[in-house]
């Protein structure tokens, strides 16, 4: 499971010209799911993201987590995070999970992340053509792969 985490001062997701999610200060999380992902990946990644200290404290040092600032979050599925660019100029998405595997894992991640932060979160629409708007604060962007946790 791969995630691109962006610290934002605001973010929103539009599907078919309708806003489906909108937050102020918090995290926009782009989530890529592969066939080999499991409940262990979800548990580790959701906890890691919730507690990652990437928000500034009173001394302007990144020392606070999403939990510490009572921030908001949006999670958007993004299979392109598993693009392989080894050969040719057209990326291959062979490692990305098919919808029948990815959708339940995506929903499980959302459920687990809500429990981690103790509040509702915004989401994209799985498989939809989405327009994602954000103001990256910092900028701060972190890439995490649950397969590289050891």
From TrEMBL:
Reactions mediated catalytically: glycyl-tRNA(Ala) + H2O = tRNA(Ala) + glycine + H(+); a D-aminoacyl-tRNA + H2O = a tRNA + a D-alpha-amino acid + H(+)
Keyword hit for Magnesium: no
Enzyme class, broadest EC rank: hydrolase
EC number from the UniProt entry: 3.1.1.96, 3.1.1.-
Alphabetically ordered keywords of this record: Cytoplasm, Hydrolase, RNA-binding, tRNA-binding
GO cellular component, one term: cytoplasm
GO MF entries: D-tyrosyl-tRNA(Tyr) deacylase activity; Gly-tRNA(Ala) deacylase activity; Ser(Gly)-tRNA(Ala) hydrolase activity; tRNA binding
Recorded superkingdom: Bacteria
RNA-binding is among the record's keywords: yes
Entry's localization field: Cytoplasm
Gene Ontology biological-process entries: D-amino acid catabolic process
InterPro entries in UniProt: Daa-tRNA_deacyls_DTD, DTD-like_sf
Motif Gly-cisPro motif, important for rejection of L-amino acids, residue numbers: 138-139
Function: An aminoacyl-tRNA editing enzyme that deacylates mischarged D-aminoacyl-tRNAs. Also deacylates mischarged glycyl-tRNA(Ala), protecting cells against glycine mischarging by AlaRS. Acts via tRNA-based rather than protein-based catalysis; rejects L-amino acids rather than detecting D-amino acids in the active site. By recycling D-aminoacyl-tRNA to D-amino acids and free tRNA molecules, this enzyme counteracts the toxicity associated with the formation of D-aminoacyl-tRNA entities in vivo and helps enforce protein L-homochirality.
Complexes and interactors: Homodimer.
Family: Belongs to the DTD family.
Domain-related comment: A Gly-cisPro motif from one monomer fits into the active site of the other monomer to allow specific chiral rejection of L-amino acids.
Name under which the protein is recorded: D-aminoacyl-tRNA deacylase
Lineage: Bacteria, Pseudomonadati, Bacteroidota, Flavobacteriia, Flavobacteriales
């Amino acid at each position: 499971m791969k995630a691109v985490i962006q610290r934002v001062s605001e973010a929103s997701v539009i599907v078919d010209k309708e806003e489906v999610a909108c937050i102020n200060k918090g995290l926009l999380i782009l989530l890529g799911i592969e066939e080999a992902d499991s409940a262990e990946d979800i548990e580790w990644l959701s906890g890691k993201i919730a507690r990652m200290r990437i928000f500034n404290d009173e001394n302007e040092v990144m020392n606070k987590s999403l939990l510490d600032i009572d921030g908001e979050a949006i999670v958007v599925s993004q299979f392109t995070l598993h693009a392989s660019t080894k050969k040719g100029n057209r990326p291959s998405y062979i490692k990305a999970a098919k919808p029948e595997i990815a959708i339940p894992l995506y929903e499980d991640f959302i459920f687990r992340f809500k429990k981690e932060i103790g509040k509702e979160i915004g989401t994209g629409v799985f498989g939809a053509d989405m327009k994602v708007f954000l103001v990256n604060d910092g900028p701060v962007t972190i890439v995490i792969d649950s397969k590289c946790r050891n």
